[in-house]
């Protein structure tokens, strides 16, 4: 991946220290409680996350009727799943799926800020919020994808979808070969957030 999308090794520790300091200050002033913090963290560990999106993808791969619904009315398809309440709440007001095919590859970006389908993909990664990624993904998507390690044939069309406060896009990746006998659970385990953002393809371990 390009150095433009890499960060100093201690970035996580640095940001964690800042968050901890802010959390302690807010608790000390009585604005929030430690119980509130724990509840929010647990929510993102167990309810909102890429495991939800992976389940949607796996279901679409094995159920043509569900796939058709997912592509035409994403919220309705999500409502059919046994997900926790709140999928259409904050950051999930309206979500829309686009499908990768042998002829078309889709890439999702948010050129204005970092709008992202949190309920299905979890919290956005650093590079998704990077102004360099946001601008270059629109201007030179093939080059950006190559820097992520994804080199596409020139015959394949690349479409870039701009997420916003009105609509948050994510990708239905192509189902990889050699997965015909896999269960939904096994298929879901193959799906990554990167594949649902369009910067990677789903791969089967060797």
TrEMBL record:
Enzyme class: lyase
Keywords recorded for this protein, A-Z: Iron, Lyase, Metal-binding
Residue span(s) of domain Nitrile hydratase alpha/Thiocyanate hydrolase gamma: 15-200
The protein's Enzyme Commission number: 4.2.1.84
SUPFAM superfamilies named among the record's database cross-references: Nitrile hydratase alpha chain
Reactions mediated catalytically: an aliphatic primary amide = an aliphatic nitrile + H2O
Keyword Repeat: no
Residues where Fe(3+) binds: 110, 113-115
Signal peptide range: none
An example molecular function term from Gene Ontology annotations: nitrile hydratase activity
Domain of life: Bacteria
Pfam families named among the record's database cross-references: NHase_alpha
Family: Belongs to the nitrile hydratase subunit alpha family.
Name listed for the protein in its UniProt record: nitrile hydratase
Organism encoding this protein: Aerosakkonema funiforme FACHB-1375
